[in-house]
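Posting for a labmate who doesn't have an account.
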Amino acid sequence: MKKRTFFTMLLLFLVFLNSMILIVSVVILNDKFSTARDQCLAEHYVIASSLIRDIQALEQRGNPAKENIAPLMRSYSRYLQGKGDGLAVSFQGNWIYESSELKPKRYMAYPPDTGSRQERLVYMENGIPPVLCVYGSFPAPFQDYGLMYIGNLGDAVSSWRHTKNILFLMGTGMLLIMAFFLFHFLNVIFHPLRQISGASTKIAGGDYSSRLTVQGKDEIASVAYNFNLMAEKVETQIRRLRESAEQKQQFIDNFSHELRIPLTAIYGYAEYIQKAPVSEEECYECTQFILSECSRLQNMAYQLLDLALLKEEAIKYEFFPVSALFEQSEKIMHVRAKEKSINLSYVISRDFLVRGNKEQLLILLNNLTDNALKASYPEDEVSVSVYQEEQRITVEVKDHGIGMEADQIPHIKEAFYRIDKSRSRAAGGAGLGLAICERIARLHHAELTFVSERGKGTAVRLQFPLSEKRKDFTSP
């Protein structure tokens, strides 16, 4: 592109420069021809006026002017000597004198016919050299005589050609200077484009960290800024795609692992029943284990189905008080807490309206509460509370159980991820509960966060944006 721009601009400059030189040359040539014409007319007038007086003097002395014209014209020829100009005198349509300095052929065949007019004829003949001819008849009583002044234009044309050559030489120099500065100017102009091209090549090669330096506030700076913005978005999107691909691969690996363990156990026990002599008691134990693993697989399938069917357009939203949600959750989870001898409490200092799907939020709250019960020891306390924190409504489930390490917290919402794999499997879990909770929270435009420390327990916070309707509502 730079070469094309360079040669295009150079060609346009060349055409413009040559056109200007041509126009100036034509103007100079016309000026030189005009000057030569005026000079020839002046010389013709002076010589014609003097010649008429000389002819008149000869006639008065009784000497025929026609026979004495040649000696008379020699003085005029000496006057023009060195100029390259010529003179010719006609009488009654014939030339009676021609100067020896210049004898052109075409325009000297016959004298021009001016009739009875006293006007002078001026015309140019393109010969070598070109000449300007001025012819005029004498006034009465010498109307039979006529004088032609032949002006040599060789010097004028030579001077014009010299001037024209100088102009074209200067134009060539200007063209070279123009080419030099244009080349460096295009280098400066195209430098950002080369940087953009280089950065694009790097991005195409997989290096998404490449950025351009933004300088100034012109169009190139705007392009560089937008390119950086685009590169940043591409890098972010690629990073998200990679993370998504890694999560999907991890999901597949975990899912395969979760399927392999129960299926291996089921296959092993079934093969044992089929091939080995077993007692009725052993057969009952094997079938019970097979039923238990099948139940776990069924539970995993239902949870995966729930996770797949959680879509925003399929959920019906409504406003309802948090107290109603807590009341239903307490009825369900109270039995589980009593079985483990855990003190479960629901605290509502101030009620709020929440917009969402009551069934889905109940699943979310029960999942979080059930996890807190599983992580707690007998005689521990688990509290479920709601309060306002800045511009958010926060539902918090807090326990004082085993807790988590800091590096485990970012992964707990991933499908099939378990902190304590043996305990989760023994409890019948598939590792999908928190993944479903995270999906429900996102569909309700809420944020699910975890604060935990090993041996000190975990606090799970579900935070909703505080709207005006929620803010104004207070339970009676």
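Reply:
Got it, the structure tokens are right above this. Residues 2-60 form the longest helix (59 residues).
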